[in-house]
Design brief:
alpha/beta; Rossmann fold; UDP-galactose 4-epimerase, domain 1; three-stranded mixed sheet; 10 helices; 14 strands; UDP-glucose 4-epimerase activity; NAD(P)-bd_dom_sf; UDP_G4E
C-alpha cells in the first residue's frame, strides 16, 4: 500500500517523499516537471511523468501502484505571479485538485493530505494566526488554495455514507526554507532564501524591501519553517489517516514567533562567511508588518516542532545550493 505524492519532484514534494520512505510508507511520485526536477526523486521510487490535469493518468497511477492515500502538493505556488496569471493559477490549483479528487473516488482511494497555504488568511492583523481565523486571501493563489480546501470538505460530505468516505486534512504554512538532503534545494525564482543565495554566488548585494515596518528592527516578520519539519508533519498526517486516527480539517505549521528579514540577512552573512550589508529598497505594496502562525494543534497531533534554528536553516539550504553548483 503506497502513498502518491503529486508534485513529488519539487522542492517540498521531494522532501515529503523522503519523509514517507523514512516512516515506512512507500511513496509514488507524479509530476509534470514544470517546476520540479527528475533528479530530486530518489532512485527506486516509482515516478510517473504527467500532469494532475490528466484524469486518466492520475486514476491509472492510483490503481497500478495500489495507492492507499494521496499527499497533494502539486500546484502553481507563486502568489505574486498569480495576480497576473489568475486563469493559469485556477486551472492548476482548483481544477487540478478537483481532478485528483475525482480520480481518487473512481479508484476507491479515501485518504488525502492537502498541501494548503497560510495564504488563505490574507494579511490578518493579529499577533498569531490560528486555524479558526477568518479566511481573506489576498491573491488568486491564496484563493485557489482556499477553494481547494472547500472542494475537499464538500467531497468528504458527499462520500460520508459510501464504502470509501474521504478522510482528509489540510496543512497550512508560510515560508519553507533549508534542505534536509543536499541533493534537493529550493529553485524558486521568487523565494527569499534562493534569491539571497543567488545574489551571494554571483557577487551581488542582497536587498531588503523596506526597513520602516512596525517591528523591533524595522523589517517585516514572517514564519520561516524548515522543509524537513514540514515534510515530517505530512508523513505523520498520512500515518494518522491510514490508521483511522482522528485529525483536524486543517493545521497551521507555524513557528509561533517568526523571524525578521534582518535576522535572516544577519544569519546569511554569519553562516556563509560572506560579509555584506544588505541594500534597502522600497516596500513592496501590501506587505504587512508581521504574519506568524501558531502550531499548537499540529504539535498536539502531528509531532510538529521547530527542530532547526535560523543558522541551521541557512546552513542546510546553502550547503544544498553549493552542492548543486558543484
Amino acid at each position: 500500500m503506497s502513498w502518491l505524492v503529486t508534485g513529488g519532484a519539487g522542492y517540498i514534494g521531494a522532501h515529503i517523499v523522503r519523509a514517507l520512505d523514512a516512516a515506512g510508507l512507500p511513496p509514488v511520485v507524479i509530476d509534470d516537471l514544470s517546476s520540479g526536477h527528475r533528479g530530486f526523486v530518489p532512485d527506486g521510487v516509482p515516478f510517473v511523468r504527467g500532469s494532475i490535469l490528466d484524469r486518466a493518468l492520475v486514476e491509472q497511477t492510483l490503481r497500478e501502484h495500489d495507492v492507499t492515500g494521496v499527499i497533494h502538493v502539486a500546484g502553481f505556488k507563486y502568489a505574486g505571479v498569480s495576480v497576473s496569471r489568475p486563469l493559469h493559477t485556477y486551472a492548476q490549483n482548483v481544477e487540478g485538485t478537483r481532478i485528483v479528487l475525482e480520480a481518487m473516488e473512481a479508484a476507491g482511494v479515501a485518504n488525502l493530505v492537502f498541501s494548503s497555504s497560510a495564504a488563505v488568511y490574507g494579511t490578518p492583523d493579529v499577533p498569531l494566526v490560528t486555524e479558526d481565523l477568518p479566511k481573506r486571501p489576498a491573491s488568486p493563489y491564496g484563493e485557489s488554495k482556499l477553494i481547494g480546501e472547500w472542494l475537499i470538505r464538500d467531497q468528504a460530505v458527499a462520500t460520508a455514507d459510501t464504502v470509501a468516505p474521504l478522510r482528509h486534512t489540510s496543512l497550512r504554512y508560510f515560508n519553507v526554507v533549508g534542505s534536509g538532503d543536499r541533493s534537493v534545494y529550493d529553485t524558486s525564482p521568487h523565494n527569499l532564501f534562493p534569491l539571497v543565495f543567488e545574489a551571494l554566488i554571483e557577487g551581488r548585494t542582497p536587498r531588503i524591501n523596506g526597513d520602516d515596518y512596525d517591528t523591533p528592527d524595522g523589517t517585516n516578520v514572517r514564519d520561516y519553517v524548515h522543509v524537513a519539519d514540514i515534510a515530517a508533519a505530512h508523513a505523520v498526517a498520512a500515518q494518522r489517516l491510514a490508521a483511522g486516527d482522528p485529525v483536524e480539517a486543517a493545521y497551521n505549521l507555524g513557528s509561533g514567533d517568526g523571524l525578521s528579514v534582518r535576522q535572516i540577512m544577519d544569519a546569511m552573512a554569519r553562516v556563509t562567511g560572506i560579509d555584506f550589508t544588505p541594500e534597502i529598497g522600497a516596500r513592496r505594496p501590501g506587505d504587512p508588518d508581521r504574519i506568524v502562525a501558531t502550531g499548537e494543534l499540529a504539535a498536539r497531533d502531528l509531532d510538529w516542532k521547530m527542530r532547526y534554528d535560523v543558522d541551521e536553516m541557512v546552513r542546510t539550504g546553502w550547503e544544498a545550493r553549493r552542492a548543486a553548483a558543484g
